[in-house]
Amino acid sequence: MHRRNTNNTLEEKLKDHYHKRDFTPKPATVSKLGMLFTASLIFILFFESLYTLLPGIYSEVSENGKVVSRTGHFGEGYWLAFFVLLVTCVEVTWNWWRVYYDKPNWVTKELKEEHFGQTIETPAGWKHCPTCQLDAPPRSHHCNFCGHCILKRDQHCFFTSSCVGLYNQRHFVVFCLYGVWGCLMGVYLQLSYLNISYPLSDENFMMYVPPVPLFQLLIGNLSFGSFVVMLHVYVNICIMCVAGFLAAWQLLLIVRGQTSHEAWKMIRAYNAGVYTNITSVFGSPMTSWILLFAPLMLPLELDGVKWNIQGKPEKAN
């Protein structure tokens, strides 16, 4: 009798646990999935190009437009394409890591002590964050995904699982630009590879228009490998559009001296002029060009605490 009661109790607990399951996506989980998605795209594009696209494009010998044999060695242009591909993947990954490492953007208690000593009161223009239990400087906002207040917070990027703020905004812009270039190069290589077996002519044009490739695969007119490459073309085009939009949006905000929050609230209080706005993000013109080749942590004139107010500042919230 005692065992039966124990089993019933255990069964009730299991049922109760089953019905109370929470399938709501957690912010940290969603953010990590976005980061994993980005890493997978870089990995797939590199190895697809290395083992499929480049050998398929540069190791073919053709006569009168028809492939007659594989040479077994790489033709002219292979090593140049490989070098550009390698540099692109390295730059995308390096800038992605710089954006991901956003710890310098975190607002800490030491930041207030450094500028105002041991005062308990919230400094003028600052606001108190009830979640972090600390005072944050102007243009800083709390991120529920990161769990921290971020200096000059612009947005939380799911592709990097981090916030875009004062110290990594420049790397985010370069990351998006290289993302556009990487996707564009990927589409070029993929279409060049497909063009060998399915020439881009008026007759075969519909072969590249979805959902025609799926139908061609089902009836046996398209190989599974070519179908996967075509599918990757569509993915690259979508990612290229997203990265291009993000890069253009960030550049517009930088020129206007705003963050996404300030643009949404129509706050123009921190616009110090185009030149000053640009140098406040990318640094000195003498060194900022280095960011295109190496995303180094170059010094910035701003510290994220002191801002020149040109108009009406934002209200504390």
Automatic annotation (TrEMBL):
The keyword Transmembrane applies. It comes from the Eukaryota. Its main location: membrane. It is found in: Membrane. Residues 126-265 form the Palmitoyltransferase DHHC domain. InterPro entries: Palmitoyltrfase_DHHC, PFA4/ZDH16/20/ERF2-like. GO terms for molecular function: protein-cysteine S-palmitoyltransferase activity. Keywords: Acyltransferase, Membrane, Transferase, Transmembrane, Transmembrane helix. Its EC number is 2.3.1.225. The keyword Acyltransferase applies. It is a multi-pass membrane protein. Belongs to the DHHC palmitoyltransferase family. This is Palmitoyltransferase. It comes from Littorina saxatilis.
